[in-house]
Amino acid sequence: MAAARTLFRFARLTSCAGKSRSLIFNRIQRRGISSSIDPSIGLSDEQKEFQKVAFDFAANEMAPHMAEWDEKEIFPVECMRKAAQLGFGGIYVDPELGGSGLSRLDTSVIFEALSTGCVSTTAYISIHNMCNWMIDTFGNAEQRERFCPDLCTMDKFASYCLTEPGSGSDAASLLTNAKLQGDHYVLNGSKAFISGGGDTDVYVVMCRTGGGGAKGISCVVVEKGTPGLSFGKKEKKVGWNSQPTRAVIFEDCAVPVTNRLGVEGQGFNIAMRGLNGGRINIASCSLGAAHACVLLAKDHLTVRKQFGEPLSSNQFLQFKLAEMATKLVASRLLVREAARALQEGRPDSVALCSMAKLFVTDECFTICNQALQMHGGYGYLKDYAVQQFVRDIRVHQILEGTNEVMRMIIARGLLTES
Question: Is 400 an annotated catalytic residue?
Answer without folding.
Answer: yes
